[in-house]
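Regression report. Comparing outputs from two consecutive submissions.

Submission 1:
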Amino acid sequence: MPATTNATIPAAPAWPVVGNSLEIVRDCYGFHGKQFARFGSVYRSQFFGAERVNLYGADAVETVLMDKNGIFSSKSGWSMVEGLFGGGLMLRDFSDHRAHRRMLQPAFRAGAMRDYLSHMSREVEARLDAWPVGQEFRFFWQVRALTLSIASRVFMGIEDEAECKRLGALFLLPSHG
């Protein structure tokens, strides 16, 4: 199927250089509601120097997310996070995406999710009780360590704290305890 050029999609009037950025930042919901009323569920806008194609409403979003005709690229849509999640499910397209999604489905069934929640609740409670009170606290690094510990235990079965820290050191940001 030939790609639709952006010129065939109606566009919100925009200022030179800043585009629609100021209006979107000031009232995002109001801006998109106004464009939906004027153009329907698919329209263009300019946000911080980039042209965007916007979808408004559940039906439009479902069309893209279900992608029954295989015409939308998830990888292109999420390219800004590729450095964090390279090779992740949302950075795969078409049959490759479906094959990996099928492999992951058992991990997200109701029983597995209940089990994760039970493990996560115990881990969060234990960590929160150990966080210092009345002294310097590096929130980002503590939340990162908590998240890595939960992920290591729940998704990989790693119980050893030293191994959890070693695994954390392999991620993009260095561990600072």
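Submission 2:
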Amino acid sequence: MRVKLKLVSTSELESAMVGLSLSRNRDPSEMPNVFKKLWVKADQHNKYLRMIDVTLDMTFPRYFWQQFDTYKIGVNCQSESTMYTLTKKPLTQLNFCRNLPEEYLEYLNDLIIRFNKETPTCLKSAICMNLKNSLPEGFLQRRIVKVNLQTLKRIYFQRSKHKLLEWVYFCDFIKNEVYKNFEWIDSND
């Protein structure tokens, strides 16, 4: 598996504390204990998590991104543009989550060469669409993802025992890398 995952940043914890303190009519400095109590409860009890942003740098295959797109609330993404980056250099086995047959990789690279040699726009468009349609689901795409902590918590509980290894890897990352940035989270929960 050639996926990559990196925590870029976490932010807005202070805003979440202020917001939660409003509903409790207490000082924001008293909120870490309240955070901890509410963390284990369902979504309606931990709305404060929506205020906390987590930014991730993720490289996963197309089949993962299709499932990831299920999570639309609290998620913003910017991705590599297949349209603009696919034809800039030859593809290698490292562009895919698992090795392709060499003949198929050669076929894709031949399409890239043809695309770069063509001048008429109509032919370029046809070759580009053929190339995009020929990409296997294991083609890796990089995205910068900004997600709120409530959505990550939901993803963890919905996908941590998923049959796709990419989901298990992503959920392990949430538990071991993201959660450790927040002292009130007991990662055994």
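Expected: both submissions complete independently.
Actual: both completed, but the second showed a warning that disappeared on reload.
Relevant detail on submission 2: The CA atoms of residues 111 and 130 lie 8 Å apart.
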